[in-house]
Design goal:
Chain lengths: 237, 289
C-alpha cells in the first residue's frame, strides 16, 4: 500500500536519507527502529511531502507521491503524528480536531460519528474540548495529536515516537490505542525508541542506520535475536 | 482646566478614528500573522480601494454599491497579486517577500497616478446631517463610519472564531507545516487571507474617502499609523491590534487638546518606542519568558 523505493533526502546540503526502501501493507503495523539521528523522522516527513525526496519514489495505493504537496498527501489518506506533537497551541481541543474534521465530503452525521469515536477513545479530550491545546499535559497532547490524525480517517498513520517522555500509565494507554487502530484496519508505521513495545505491537520491523534500512524482518525473529538489537540499537530488549 | 464637553468630543473623535484605523490594522495584522512579514502594499490597497470606490460612485451614484464594489474588486486583485508575486516566495527568506510587497506598493501607486491623475477625487457621504454635540455640529457620518467598522470587524471576529476557514487561518498562522499535514490547503489559505486583508483595506479606504478626498498618496499616513498599531498590539494579534487602534487614537485625540494634531502623532510614536522597549510582544499580551 505504502512503499518507499530508494528514497534520498537532503536538508540543504546535508544528505540525510541514503536510499531508504520499505513497505507497509494494508492494515499492517510496522515498526521503524534506529538510534538517534539516523533519519527515522525524516523518512516520515518525506512520505508526507514536508521535505522533498531528491531521488527515489514514494508510492501510495499505486500513486506516486513524490513532489505532491503535504495537504494532497493527507487527503489521500496518510496522517502524521509528529514526534514533538505539534498541537495547535492557541486552538482549543475541539478546534484542533476540526482541522481534520472540516473537510469536503464529510456529512454532518458522519462528522458527529467521527467525533464520538475519537472522544470514546480519549474521554479526557471530551472533558477538555474547550481548553486551549497548549494548556494540556504532555500525555494529553499526545492523545490529541493521535486523535487529530484519526479525524482524517486515514488508511495509514505515521506515528513518530508516541510514547516518548510519557509515564508508564500513559504508555500503556497509547499501546491500547495502537491496538484499537489496528483492529479498525488502519495501517501504522511506528517509529519508536521503546524496543519492547515495538516488538509487541508490530508484525514486522525495520531498523535504520545512517540513513538506510539495515535490517528487516518479523518482530518474532528480532525478539529471539538479542545480538541484532544490540548491534543496531545498542540496547537490550 | 479643560471643559468636560471638549473631553467628550475628543473621546468620540478618538473612537471614530480608532475604529477605522482598526479596520486597516486588522487586515495588516492578519496578513502579518500568516506570512510573518509586513505587507508594505497595504496602504496602497487602501488607496486603490478608495479609487475603485470613486469609479463605482461616479457611475452609480450609490455609496453602498461603491463600498461593495471596492471590496470585491480589491479582494480579487489582492488574490491575483498574492498568487503571482507572493505565493512563489513562500518559505524563502522573509526579506524577499518584504521586497516583493514593496514592489507591489510602487506599482499600485504609480498605476493610480497614471489611471486617475493627480487631482484628488471625492465620494459623497451617504448621510449628510449633523447633530448638536454641545457647542459643535457633529456629522452623523463620522458615527456611521465607527459603527460600520465595528460591524465589519465583528464579522471578521466571528468568521475567525467559528468558521472552518477561520480555523484554517489560525492553524496555518501557528504551524504552517502541521496545518498542511492535516490536509489544509495552505497556499489557498494564504491567498484567502491576502484577499480578506485587501478587501478590508478597501472598505476603510471608501469609508474614509468622504472625509479627506482620494489621492494617490492617501495610503501613506494610514499605513504608517497601522504599522504602529500592529506593533503596539502585538504582531499578528487581531484583538491586540483592535485595542491598540482605539487606545492610540484616543491618546492622540486627547493630546490634541494641548498641542496641534500634527504634534499629537508623536504620542503614538512614544507609545511605540516604549512598547518595543518593555513589551516587545505587544502591549496587551504578557511577554513570554
Ligand atoms: N530541519 C533540519 N535541518 C537540518 N538537518 C536536520 C533537520 N532535521 C533533521 N536533521 C538532521 O537529519 C538527521 C536525521 O534526523 P531525524 O530527525 O530524521 O532523525 P531520527 O532518526 O528521527 O532521530 P531521533 O531518534 O532523535 O528522533 C540528523 O542528523 C539531524 O541532525
Ligand atoms: Mg525522530
Amino acid at each position: 500500500m505504502l512503499s518507499l523505493q530508494d528514497v534520498h533526502t537532503y536538508y540543504g546540503k546535508s544528505h540525510v536519507l541514503h536510499g531508504v526502501s520499505l513497505e507497509v501493507g494494508p492494515g499492517e503495523v510496522v515498526g521503524l527502529l534506529g538510534r538517534n539521528g539516523v533519519g527515522k523522522s525524516t523518512t516520515l516527513k518525506t512520505v508526507m511531502g514536508l521535505v522533498r525526496a531528491a531521488d527515489g519514489r514514494v508510492v501510495f495505493d499505486g500513486r506516486d507521491l513524490t513532489g505532491l504537496a503535504p495537504h494532497h498527501v493527507a487527503r489521500l489518506g496518510i496522517a502524521w503524528v509528529p514526534e514533538d506533537r505539534r498541537i495547535f497551541r492557541l486552538l482549543t481541543v475541539m478546534e484542533n480536531l476540526r482541522t481534520g474534521l472540516d473537510r469536503q465530503g464529510v456529512t454532518e452525521p458522519r462528522r458527529r460519528e467521527l467525533l464520538d469515536k475519537v472522544y470514546a477513545s480519549f474521554p479526557v479530550l471530551r472533558e477538555r474540548r474547550h481548553q486551549a491545546g497548549g494548556t494540556l499535559s504532555g500525555g494529553e497532547q499526545q492523545m490529541l495529536a493521535i486523535a487529530r490524525a484519526m479525524t482524517l480517517e486515514p488508511k495509514i498513520i505515521l506515528l513518530d515516537e508516541p510514547t516518548e517522555g510519557l509515564m508508564p500509565r500513559m504508555v500503556a494507554q497509547i499501546r491500547e490505542i495502537i491496538d484499537v487502530l489496528r483492529r479498525d484496519g488502519l495501517a501504522i508505521l511506528l517509529v519508536e525508541q521503546n524496543v519492547p513495545l515495538t516488538l509487541e505491537v508490530c508484525a514486522r520491523v525495520y531498523i535504520m542506520e545512517k540513513g538506510q534500512v539495515r535490517y528487516r524482518g518479523p518482530a518474532g525473529e528480532l525478539r529471539a535475536n538479542e545480538t541484532i538489537i544490540h548491534q543496531y540499537l545498542g540496547v537490550s530488549a | 482646566m479643560i471643559p468636560f464637553e471638549q473631553l467628550l468630543v475628543q473621546a468620540i473623535n478618538g473612537i471614530v478614528t480608532g475604529m477605522i484605523l482598526a479596520l486597516v490594522a486588522s487586515g495588516l495584522t492578519l496578513i502579518f500573522g500568516i506570512m510573518d512579514v509586513v505587507n508594505f502594499a497595504h496602504g496602497d490597497l487602501f488607496m486603490l480601494g478608495a479609487y475603485v470606490g470613486t469609479t463605482v460612485f461616479v457611475t452609480t451614484g450609490n455609496f453602498w454599491l461603491a463600498l461593495l464594489g471596492a471590496c470585491v474588486t480589491m479582494a480579487a486583485l489582492g488574490a491575483a497579486l498574492q498568487i503571482t508575486t507572493l505565493r512563489p516566495l513562500l518559505g524563502r527568506d522573509p526579506l524577499t517577500t518584504i521586497l516583493a510587497t514593496f514592489g507591489i506598493s510602487l506599482v499600485l501607486q504609480n498605476y493610480a497616478l497614471w489611471q486617475y491623475g493627480p487631482v484628488p477625487r471625492k465620494i459623497m457621504e451617504p448621510l449628510t446631517g449633523h447633530f448638536q454635540l454641545f457647542h459643535i455640529e457633529y456629522p452623523w457620518y463620522r458615527l456611521l463610519i465607527a459603527m460600520l467598522s465595528a460591524v465589519i470587524i465583528g464579522g471578521l471576529w466571528l468568521f475567525m472564531k467559528y468558521g472552518t476557514y477561520g480555523i484554517w487561518i489560525r492553524a496555518t498562522t501557528q504551524d504552517r507545516l502541521m496545518a498542511s499535514a492535516m490536509g489544509i490547503p495552505v497556499p489557498r489559505v494564504h491567498t484567502g487571507v491576502f484577499a480578506i486583508g485587501a478587501a478590508m483595506a478597501a472598505a476603510s479606504g471608501v469609508l474614509f474617502a468622504p472625509l479627506v478626498g482620494v489621492n494617490h498618496a492617501m495610503g501613506f499616513d494610514f499605513t504608517l499609523r497601522a504599522f504602529v498599531v500592529v506593533v503596539v498590539g502585538g504582531m499578528g494579534n487581531l484583538g491586540g491590534s483592535i485595542l491598540a487602534s482605539i487606545f492610540l487614537s484616543l491618546l492622540e485625540a486627547f493630546a490634541s487638546l494641548w498641542v496641534s494634531p500634527a504634534q499629537a502623532v508623536i504620542v503614538s510614536f512614544i507609545v511605540l518606542i516604549l512598547t518595543l522597549l518593555f513589551r516587545p510582544t505587544g502591549l496587551f499580551v504578557p511577554t513570554p519568558k
